[in-house]
Structure formats: structure tokens, C-alpha cells
Amino acid sequence: MTGRPVVLPAWATAQIEERLNRGLGDSGATLGQTIIEVDRAGAPQVRLRIVALFDARDVRIATLNEVRAALSLPELMRGVVVPSDLQVSGAQITVRRS
Known about the structure:
- The structure is a single chain.
- Helices cover about 20% and strands about 50% of the residues.
- It is an alpha+beta fold.
- A five-stranded antiparallel β-sheet has the order 1-2-3-4-5.
- The longest helix is centred in the first third of the chain and has 13 residues, at about 10-20.
- The chain starts with 5 loop residues before the first strand and ends in a 5-residue tail after the last strand.
């Protein structure tokens, strides 16, 4: 599995999205695709593609082409997801005047 990206099935991405939204309060997010891989050093990484962020009125406020997170292996072994590094690519935001 090292160095080989694995695209998670849609149902797994939906579960990740549901858990993420529970932590966002009144805001929300949708995920297009989830990819996992292990780098050469053995560190697990997760890539979320086409991440849309919504405000409390369900209005899209940002789209992120990709969010990449390197995960802490010791924490993951304890069942806790803790990013040790986070990268965002291709961010687009929506600005509205009221």
C-alpha cells in the first residue's frame, strides 16, 4: 500500500462527511472524493477532493480543490485522527455584499 493511493468508496466518503459535519455546528461541508495512502516513511495521508464549505444558511462560502492531511500514526493507532500537517490547494471563496 505504500505510495499507492486508494480511492475510498462513496459510502466511506459519506461517513467521513457526516462525522465532519457533526463537528462543524451550524456550518457544513460536502466531500467529492477521499483518497488514502501511506508515504515511504510509513506515515498515513488522507486527501479530500472537491471540498465545499457552507455557512449556517446553507450558502456555499468556499470550495477547496484538495485538502491533504498527514496523520499522526501514534494517535491513529489509539483511534484518534490528528493531522500532523495540513495542505490546501485551489481554494476559491465567495464574497457577498449585504
